[in-house]
Fold each of these.
Amino acid sequence: MLNWDLVANPLVWPLVMLLAAGTVAYVAARRVVSLCRVLSVMGAGLTLVSGAVIVGTAPPVRALWADLGGGFVLSLELAQSRLGMLVFIASAVFALLIAVYSLRALRGADDEGRFHAFLLWALAGACTVALAGNLVVLLVGWEIVTLMLFLMMNQGKDNAAAGAAKTYAILGFADACLLLAIALLAAQPGGSANLSLTRGPVAVDSYGPVGYVIYLLILTAALAKAGAIPLHTWIPSAAADAPTPVMAYLPAALDKLLGIYLVALLSLRLLRPDPSLQAVMMVVGGVTILAAVLMAMMQHNLKKLLAFHAVSQVGYMVLGIGTGTVAGIAGGLFHMLNHALYKCDLFLMSGTVGRACGSDRIEDMGGLARYLPVTFASSLIAAGAISGIPPLNGFASKWMVYQGTLGVANKPLASAMLLTAVFGSALTLASFVKVIHSAFLSRRPALGWPSGQTPRESGLLAGPMVVLALACIVLGLAPQWVLDTVFIPVATGGATAAAGAGDLSTALWSPTQATVLILLGLGGGLLLVWLARRNFRSRVVRPFLCGELAAQGDDRFRIDGTHFYRTIEDLPAIGGLLHQGQGGAMDLYRWTGRYGHSLVELLRRQHTGLLCLYVAWCILGVAVTLAYLLLSAGV
Amino acid sequence: MTALGWAIVTLVLAGSGTLVLGLTLRWVDRKVTALVQWRVGPPWYQPFVDMLKLMGKENLVPSTARGTGFLIAPLVALASTLVVAAILWHACFRPQVGFVGDLIVVLYLLTMPALMTMLGASASGNPHAAVGASREMKLLLSYELPLLCAILVGLARAASLGGAAWTFRLGDLVQAQSTWPAVASASGVLALLVAIVCAQAKLGQVPFDLAEAECEIMSGVLVEYSGPSLAMFLLARAMLLALMPLLMILVFWGGLYTGAWWGILTFAGKYLLLVALVTLIRNTNPRLRIDQTMKLFWFVLTPAAVLALILALNGH
């Protein structure tokens, strides 16, 4: 029977629209690719509009799905919340920008039509997660996004299938954790009401030890999606071969939003963590920041480098939420949004640069600032934002995370985490100095351009990057509005520590004032120049090379940035760790594969083909089962 | 006066004051160096006329450079140093009122001159500059960790002295140390010593001048700079020379806020002592290689700073 309340509710419309548009695009993928392009841009645009329309107005919707008995009721619940709507709207914005970017970047690719279909379905999944009123609905959207990620990654070149398989294995494990947590939660007193995301949190120990298990299971699922250590390895593995728009869309933007959204839901609406769980989160955050950024510095492949940064930045979010202070939680959630903005921009940059140079290897890049000035400027802003250069948005949220960390009562832990976080930020800067130098500012290598033509800016490629870079500036200069509307109310509702509650009212970072002062300083500098010499002019001369004359295309005088940090690799202790990390020592997937293989080998040896052996195993099994049944019945 | 008006006045006053102070300190530095080397040394106005002369010179841009980035970098370096000057002097004279940013903001703004040096060097397209930029970055990584750790010691001491929560607010740090400074403890002394070495590196002074290293890489990061652009970088450095001792006094040594009339005298004494130390270190040490520098900072000074932090957390 059709439930009219459900159909009439505006919360359902964007989901239905996206699923339908995705289906049409999938059907038309082979024949009418232009229809797919129109559908994806229109679908994402309409979702954005519908998000703006329904925010604050649409009532929650609840429809019975199935009564499974024993107090467990499956119901379709959708409700909007401040944070959920932010994730909804941000996802639609990213989908729209990626759809526009792909119009040029994927033009003529084999699977272009299907890419657009998957993009729409993934957006539908993300919106379902954002609007979910209970964990079951959330799981459905969550699975859709995982599946779409797998399908989209498979469209890449060379080894994309291996990366996609690894991704699916890790995320599938994470999703199984989420499913198990749901089952455990529903088995507790209260039944399926425990799954509600609108009810408000209960203390994690109110379910006894099972509460901790549930918390850790959901945390595992969320962190695997967001990509925190040790479940991060799918991102770098997938990065090298997956299509760039896919990396920019899912691992860089949507997966971060969803993963951290689930961490926030878990801590603020389901189970209120206690100090020990918060300490676990903080340590996971700190380790993620440092280990991933060190790995990133050593990479020679631009996309892999960005992928490791995408992991590292998750650390700040988890650390912020783990502090349990208002400033920390609000900062961590704000960082989630900021990170999605600049990392999406940077992945798009890697796509444009890779296209221009015909390679993702940093050694093969160089000299692009002259030919791609818009890409260069927007990448510079995004690189500044990820390194926390004031007054960009990355600094605003990192600043809040630091304030939150300082408010943690456990001072040794807080000090260690602060050191890690601030030092991680310096390492991030180092990594991006290398990228900006190698890709844009260093001299062009002698091998020339792959297509024989000098690269030119394309509006469809540069447009989305400019939008994202502008968003980084605006959110950095005027963060107050989005903080007051979304993040601080959400954090105030969920903070567990009294410390830090007041530190935002006395907040001491005024980005607007600082920017005015920096601009004034710039003006002062210019004034000095002007005072000293009214006709300030420059003369172009040959670079000083100690008398050597560098011919065109002479690579002796070209320093690419790949060896900038060789010194660190050669240091005792740290160098060894880095080489082990490169070899996959941190990769749980690899370890599981190795031990799983040994286990399978063991089982294989039992398969001798002798009937009596199989019968013996069967009898043994029956005997054990019987013994268990008899003992548990108390006979 | 509105907040913004006040900020602008502070910026102008603190900026011009620091500029003059920094250039004067540059003279002190050169004079002392000359005396150590049995020379007469320059007259007091030498750094000022050097700057004026550079301002009047032609600006040379290498043909390999990305012009905009190359020319803007020194301006941004100077501008961010000016803002740091405003924040620090404000905390010195009016610790009870918050202003623009706290210690975190100062630390991040203090990396801007180094970052701009690297970007400018990279934009010049000169291989010597590129090597210099990579060294500058590694130098930044080296001193950032122990410096931060030392500063946390200051925070911990201030919190236990003032009996309040840990804070990044410079004004609160200064006020918490109004009766007894953070340096008056085992952890405080150790942290201050570490911070002094870090300041030396931040200033790019010998033995940590490897990003310039005239005799190896021809002034490295600055090799292509000339005229007004070079003057901007040198002005920013001169201002940093005035600001680093000030930062250390604010975090470890109670700032200007002593509550007594002779506060200003003790402040001047502390300030001169720190400047003298910087000059002394510079004149008695040869330049280190980059790997030696990194080992020194990560494997000697960082453990020392961590030890200081552990002591501070236990109330020593």
Note: The longest helix of chain A spans residues 326-357.
Amino acid sequence: MEIVVPGEIVSDQPMRSQNTNVEDGKTYAVRIALKDSRKGTLVPLEGVWRPHVGDIVVGIVTGQRSSVYDIELNYFERSILVSGKYESHPLSPGELIEAKVKDVENRRTVILAYPKSLHGGTIVEAAPSKVPRIIGKEDTMVRQISEMTGTQIVVGKNGIIWIRGDERGVLKAKMAIKKIEDEAHIPGLTERIKQMLEKNSE
Amino acid sequence: MGGSSLNKPELIIHGKRTDGREFGELRKFRIKAGIVKNADGSAYLEWGNNRIIAAVYGPREAMPKHSSDPAKAVIKCRYAMAPFSSLSEHGRSGPNRRATEISKVIKEVFENVVLTQEFPGSEIAIFIEILQGDGGTRAAGITAASVALAAAGIPMKDLPFAVSAGRIKDKMVLDLNMIEDNYSDSDMPLAVSPRNNEILLLQMDGGLTKDDLMKGINMVVESGKKITEAQRHALKEMYADSGENGV
């Protein structure tokens, strides 16, 4: 694993891959990223969330207009949820929800569906580029944190994370998330988080 | 400036410049990335006696809304000299004619490298604050801002850098400091995209012959290798100190 920065040559061959730019037959990185030389992919280290259909997000209901709810996702475009279709009860402003991205209209407005209300708990914000590591391969990381701290966790792809549990558990889960954010680029993360949580539970 | 004065300080003494540099030598510089925690990306640059902080926010919702572009992100740039940054002229803070112009040209440099079409409707805000100025601040500001943009994870084709070249009598010199800037015969800040040496900014005070111009451009491009190296190093260093044995 190696860090590449914008303008750095990734390959002397033209390569079609995310976060790269091909010019004069050479492939250049366009973002600060970790280069996985085996797979030839670039994993961004920084940056904002780009919505994709199917992403699970955590947001706050900020308002209601004739037929849609406005949802705040920490994203620079509007996010809406069509009302009266999916929700089991009318949502009120200030409510916290978990939802799925159903569509991204004109590459801009995020359309949500399948909301679930999140009662109680707290939210923490993480850098969206670190969210895949917080979730882990097939949820391994988040499941490990959840089990070892006795908390319920929902990780939104937009970088908002909801945690509910007893005070100690929530604090430990927050510390684990912070550690993942700081060390996302260093291999062997799952093991280190496990050790940290075990040490703290004594 | 107007007028003419022959009462100029001697800028080249015994074949060296006033601060002891060779004609094609850069001032000493140091870059550190990620120093403003609240910003999405930031950089601190010491370039000779210049001290500069650059911070980047975005892509975020464009405000005011009418400034947004549905096809691409808009780049906003604010270059400002702190009121205490240099001896005179900049005693009053806030935008003035000079700062407005520099903000505009810096914005145009980055419009050519940032992949703005990836974030339609958003804005990317670049703030460059000169804490201490000693000539060549717009160039140093560009060098710092490109590190800050990359640190924010903003997709860009390249990491541009900028340096000025100028003429003192019949000699072409690189990276003019304040006194050389004030009394030289010509001064030309250049911003370059190092992957293909594309020129992103070229301004000029005074006059140069075609030969001198090409010589100046070559000096800047040549010096860029060292600057690009330092910029890349600063970005990678952000991830170096945390980890392994730490925490």
Note: Chain B touches chain A at residues 40-41, 58-62, 70, 113, 115, 119-123, 150-159, 193-196, 228, 231-232, 235-236, 239, 242-244, 247 (CB under 8 Å).
Amino acid sequence: MGVSERYSRGRQFVVEQPLALVVGLVVIWMAWFLVEGLVTGRLQVNNVLGYLWDGLLRGLIIGLAGIGLSMTYSILNFANFSHGDYITSGAFAGMAVSYLVAGFGEADIGSLLLVGAGGSVFGGALGVGIATSPIGIIAGMVVAAIATIALSLVIDRFVYKPIRDESGIALLITSVGVAFALRYLIVFVFGSRVRGTTAAGSQPQLRLVAVDGYLTINAHDVTLLVVAVGLMLGVHFLLQRTKLGKAMRAMSDNEDLARITGIPTEQVVRSTWIVGGGLTGVAGYMFVLWKGTVGFNDGWLLLLLIFAAVILGGIGSIYGAIAGGIVIGLTASMSVIWIPSEFGRAAAFLVMILILLFKPQGLFSGRTTA
Amino acid sequence: MSESSLRSRFESLLTGDPGLVIAVLGAIYLAYILAGIVFGFTVRGHMNSLANLTFYIAVFGMLALALNLHWGYTGMFNIGVVGFMGIGVYVTAIFSKPPAAQGGAAQVGGLGLPLGVGVVAGVLAAAVFGAIVALPALRLRADYLAIVTIAFSEIMRFTFMSSTFETFTVPDTFDLTILGTTLISFDPVADTVGFGGGSGLILNYASPLEAFLKFLFLWDPYLGLVDFVGEYAIQTNPKPVVDSLVYGLLLLVVVGIYYWLLTWTGESPFGRVLKAIREDEDVANALGKNTDVFKLKAFVLGCALMGFAGVLWYAGRGSITPPSFRPNITFFVWIALIIGGAGSNTGSVLGGAVFAALLYEGPRYIKNLIEAAIDVGDGPGSFGQAMAALGSFDPVPFLVYTLNSISQLRLVIMGVVLIYLMHNRPEGMLGHRKEVASSIDLSRPEGSVHEEPAATDGGEKE
Amino acid sequence: MSETTETGERTTAPDDEAQGRTRYPLQVEGLRKTFGGIVAVDDIAFEVEEGSLTGLIGPNGAGKSTTFNLITGMNDPDAGTVRFNGEDITGRAPHEIANRGLARTFQIARELEEMTVLENMMLAPKNQQGEKLWRSITPGVRDNVRRQEEEVLERVWEVLDFFEIEHLAEEYAGNLSGGQRKLLEMARALLTDPDMLLLDEPFAGVNPTLEKRLLDHIHELRQDGYTFLIVEHDMDLIMNNCERVVVMHQGKILMKGTPAEVKESEDVIEAYLGGEV
């Protein structure tokens, strides 16, 4: 028994007491390293601003995709591991339409719809981009949303609905099956090659003077910013102003209660998939438009960062998901100032693990969905 | 021990769980062999495919058994399996690779220690990392533990891939000097060590099979066996085929050891507490069990076994690269466990075998069979071309495209199978309720309660 | 550590301790617990006499289960002390408290569903060698484990016989009826070899025949020297069987006394019995 006491006490001490100290020291060191780097010229101001800008945009994508994950996590009560592949699905569906619009008449429709599978057509050559083919981009965005909504509703109907009452773990495991099936169906249809999607060079860009260099902002950055912020505001109004939003909030707080008080839960579930799926599809599309490449693994690779954001923000809170997304995006991008760039995502995961260990209810907990 | 009890033991071996395992394995092998004969495989082709099959049955069996300790017994949702496998084999490589000066300066070197030492180090490293993950994370609820473990396994993969840890130069000497006196002067053989970054590590040590057989002084008889096969079965270059077949069989022996170890772990007071933790941790606590310690031990043991399975999977492969350690492998193991039935060791072995034979190797085997039987040609390069042909009522290109995509499609099949199982048979082939957690038969002892301890003597075998 | 001195004189401590060891295995003092601003248990103090059957009663939400959780370490109190056999066990881990000889059952029987009744029972005894992993998997040493298991098994069957649930031995606990689960839980708690048992509504959902049997068992065990603290709703049952009663109301102790005293108390009648008796 002595051993176990020492074990639990030791852990308590190790875990609770010096943690604040360590975090404090790390923060101080990071601040010093940044300031010292900027002063001595080891770091360039324009680079730091570049990381900041990149992290913010990445964070918006994560946040946008995170809203859907957070909503299903709290309302359906499971961690959806197929969420990343919804993102990929949205990206491919949207890009197929953008290719079609941008390249209509220039190449055969099959190649366009398959987003140039097998190297048949190239988005760059077709002029896919907000300035060169604005209609194609808007159409792509709309289709990305619609396709992902349809996909998530179909999957819910045939996969999740029959086992709605099972434990969250059973649903989680099932969602892994969905993720596998979806991801490799995408490979089957669109191929496994990562390809360029946009005519990035032909989009206008802005060069802002930033002390010792320039910060470049291109048209797709701005598109992403406008779309993401617009949609986030839209969700805000949806949740605050409509009956649906109220019902959703009630559901995520307490499903049984919601059922008793007569909120039609299946309808709320459907609405959740519609809102969440739509945002997720657009997020996937904006992601591949912004970074200029698309591959079957894009969504899956983003998924853990999205989980990080959702957990950071507190599961069920859409504002938390947005804020968490931005924090995670900034962490992943800006960490290169302090650590080797290949650990950017690792740093974001570490933040998530620390949150799970020490504040599992998230940083923005208290109010669940509002 | 009397003859009749021996016989009854033998009979129970055939009718009980081991009999079931033998029957399932037998059916799998029979199907593979028959299919190979029908489609006209050569002897070499046969032996190769069986060796491959055996290998995957064994590794998935081991991993499913280890995961069963975590999930099936204790209810710990670990989806970082591949991370512990990677640690095992990477550490083994670092310990046992020859120094760069011997192995070629172009690559990262190792410490040049015997492979056995490397394997032990790899397994211990996996155990230590298991403890590092477990200490803070085991109190988390299941889905959070899942996210932490998968994030951990990804962090490990980034580490293997990173250029920061690609290679380090080892100083020529380590001197421990205190107050001007050199206490220890150590001259390491290694000149460089590291994870090798994106291009990975070349495993340029003696083959594990050779090292193992030499250790047992069985190397010469083994070479005799190879000659025998060369004489009667495969005339040209028989060694690689025999190597892989024998390696596969040795792995099956390891599965047996895992099974035995985990059965003893489960069928004991220790395993009983693990089961209680799975069912209701508060109750276990209220009965005076320090559940944190039990969970920690179970987690670490499982991680060590995963690390060892990782070593056995990859250490004989010539090289390792970070993409091999993607989370997909973890989910494969999960599917294997769920097929077999979480909570049952026999189920884990069966699940590993069925997964390997039907889902992992099966589709590829069918592809090989078809290709051995008919010349399918190159086929279309993309789905579009396949569909275009299908549109003009020519299904052949589509079928060939499907066949060529079988590696990817089998993951679709796995996903669908997993969904099907979760809908229709979440308890798997054998399910939870199979194995009683006790080292003894729990039926009422023969002697009545009031008799003297003589009753227990009778139950003991000397 | 020295904060608690405010409540009493230092000189009384040895006296208390001596008393605790001899007469009062369980002493609760100034115990307090709040959940998110709501006071669940508010500064309660009582003690349980050795070998007694003490009832803890009160309307729903009075804080009885929370009190149990505080005593057994499932929740940490915000203030106050719990002494068991004279030792301060406040805030200790549940397994440590259980190992000191204070066993409990749960309000809603928490059997281990996918384990058989026998497995449930075999789990309970303390100091099982085989709970050390290495002993269970080391050839040779495992024989000792088996030998001890055989001894444990005999006791398990004795207790199964005592509670007359031996016919359910091979059954999965999840398949038992509510009353059978209660019996199993108590039998299991008894196997931890406790000095004292805290039973949280042991008779809830138990049919009258079984209830009588359970009561008989409790009285029998009392004669063997076990101490009981029982949470129960059924007033008659408590009045007829307990020699001491602690009445809780809204997180506070309303009164302590013999069943007769409690029956006569105006406060109790008003707060709890609603003039029914």
Note: Chain C touches chain B through 51 residues (CB under 8 Å).
